Amino acid sequence: MENYAKIADTGKRRIVIVGGGFGGLELAGSLQDADVQVVLIDKNNYHTFQPLLYQVATAGIDADSIVHPFRKIFEGQDNFYFRLATVEHVDTERQVVETSIGLIKYDFLVIATGATSNFFGNAQMEQNAISMKSVEDAMELRNTILYNFEKALQLDDCEQQNSLMDYVIVGGGPTGVELAGALSELRRHVFPKDYRELNFKEMDIYLIQSGPQLLKGMSEEASQKSLEYLQKFGVNVWLNRRVLSYDGYTVSLDTGEKLITRTLIWAAGVTGAPLQGLSKDSLLRGNRLQTDRYNRVAGYENIFAIGDVAAMVTEENPQGYPMLAQPAIQQGHLLGKNLQNLLAGKPLEAFTYNDQGSMATVGRNHAVADLKVFKKDLRTQGFMAWLIWVFIHLTSLVGFRNRMAILLDWIWSYFTYDTGNRLILGGKHVNIPVKETITHKAVE
Amino acid sequence: MENYAKIADTGKRRIVIVGGGFGGLELAGSLQDADVQVVLIDKNNYHTFQPLLYQVATAGIDADSIVHPFRKIFEGQDNFYFRLATVEHVDTERQVVETSIGLIKYDFLVIATGATSNFFGNAQMEQNAISMKSVEDAMELRNTILYNFEKALQLDDCEQQNSLMDYVIVGGGPTGVELAGALSELRRHVFPKDYRELNFKEMDIYLIQSGPQLLKGMSEEASQKSLEYLQKFGVNVWLNRRVLSYDGYTVSLDTGEKLITRTLIWAAGVTGAPLQGLSKDSLLRGNRLQTDRYNRVAGYENIFAIGDVAAMVTEENPQGYPMLAQPAIQQGHLLGKNLQNLLAGKPLEAFTYNDQGSMATVGRNHAVADLKVFKKDLRTQGFMAWLIWVFIHLTSLVGFRNRMAILLDWIWSYFTYDTGNRLILGGKHVNIPVKETITHKAVE
Hints:
The structure is a homodimer.
Chain A: E1 13-18, H1 22-30, E2 36-42, E3 46-48, H2 53-57, E4 67-69, H3 70-73, E5 80-84, E6 87-91, E7 96-99, E8 102-105, E9 108-111, E10 115-117, H4 123-128, E11 130-131, H5 135-152, H6 158-165, E12 167-170, H7 174-194, E13 205-208, H8 220-232, E14 236-238, E15 243-246, E16 250-253, E17 258-260, E18 263-266, E19 270-272, E20 289-291, E21 303-305, E22 310-312, H9 325-343, E23 357-363, E24 366-373, E25 376-382, H10 383-396, H11 400-416
């Protein structure tokens, strides 16, 4: 007898969704009135609003406010079943996913597992860098930043002290730009008051981008303005450089330049995180699953993929859609409809992407936005873009309570130039006393 | 050469405070204008508002809102220095404390290290029970509760399932009463919606108290009413019983009764947590340091103790003051004055305790309060006591942002009968998939 996870057999067809990010969440909700059983599997019991992770990391908001428990979100949806588990493998012959709580049978499987940091095979980098994909990552970065200063207070050696005060961010996409901006604001308004004994003129923030511009994929104006803003805020933006290695102390660039830091944040790219057990033929470059316009994975009848892990390859779109929240939400929504069409024997509706644009914030009153309004481009930078950014992020958050809590934090920090959450809380640093454990020295 | 921690020598006399609880915080603040150097050492970088830990544990509020970073609190106080460290030992001859970041010299030492859970030497209990002394404890309990239900969903065996759904709280003081009440509210309003597949008639909450009444130290009315309220909420209050052992599954009582639970919360008593290196003669029963009316530790000229760790033994008060926030705050405040008197060669002021009463909340609209208003007893129970409890706790919190955040959470949950923070976040459960790892079976 095999080990099956315990989930009631409701006699309905079972749609198993792996992953409760933007796509999985939207899909489960759009199946609300469907005559099916919806099983959502996630390794956390909450949905994470990833666009604000960087604010958790920089002590602007608390972690609780950007996550929302799945069970709460789907409280009123009778066909919804949640299971806290990791999924290891899919057996497409027998139509089961193999999870940490046992086998789960599916009639339809939707892979919404998103993306993971891409270290391009650099194991040393993976070990030493901090990435920014989860709430735990963000809390870890927050703890590290605050802990670094506590340690720096105990050092006399300038190089050692600087290694704890300097930050290197790799990757000039939205995460990198937003983190660099937020760190520069902390350096200006908050840290000097908290750590009067340290000289924050010595705190350097580097943003390293492999290409010639920031925010690739956005407009020329957005790239240019975000660079201007960051430079105005004193961030060292280094373009056209690649990071070759990082041993936890010395960062080596392809130009031969070296930087010293104990904290390197890796925001240089993501790769799809599909399940094991699918045919290799379905996998495209970047580890994404090739799907048709109905999000059906190539080679399968009843397996679908949405969001970051899906590459819907079309003539006009040979790389698949960008790995952003909007395509994931829209695909999740349409797939909900299409699964019901499928069950009703109705024709499916092909996906078309309604690009609403994208935006990034660099700091208070400073953002860049490339919007599409009635299919027209609306590009704006500065205060107006920042207001739009604030509005869109507040309204996109899941849960009224979260919206209010974050609004409160933002109003508070806007007027006081202060952030309330400078806590070393949870994670591996807790209760580990500050000890000088420095063994590295800069190599030449 | 010895390893001294790096703290600027300001040329002033140095007052070292170990511990930033209610007492240490108040003391440091009351030295604001003193011509001294104030060094506060704590193992966390934040102050914890302990009275609301139980609400963090029961998912009512987020952890960030009941803690406040020391550096933020003392931002404007020039003579204040914070050091994140654990203190291991004091060398009273050389006047140094030995900490995890090195030796720290003092002219005056104030021990404000508080109390720790008292397991009365029962190592098995200490290993298997969850206590409620820190934010990490509270988050751990929250994670455990939520994780238990996820696990219970996977079980067929009734006893095993019940072991995950039942809770045993040991200790009928404020923490035990408040936790039991909050759990019963979750059982009534929240869990059945989150876990529709579980039968919450099977969830039992036991509160075990060794003596004949709850809330010992409060009035007869308060004890009686809190018992009534808990019984009305369906909590099994077992008086006059002692827990003998707990192996992580079976709780054995001195009456021969046994209970099965995977979660035992230990709120049955605390013991002082003094520093090593002080004369054994200064230690009283309960591990508290004996002090005079000026909080000076018996046998020392320049070492003081305040709060839970201090036992100010007087004729009218042979046990020392109760281990509560109020005596700690009042002692911290007076000691700040007295240290300045001492330095100015002025006479010291003896401590008198201004007992403002005590209170405990059992659930929404249900609290008990024994207040002293203009030295007159004012005893009230029910809605009015609850309103007073809410008001006093909100105004006692450190930090405007925290007050607003908690007010928001309370208003939210008051009207929706919902709590927003049902997250398995941080701590050892994260990313550990639900696996059936049950090895115990009930003895008998």
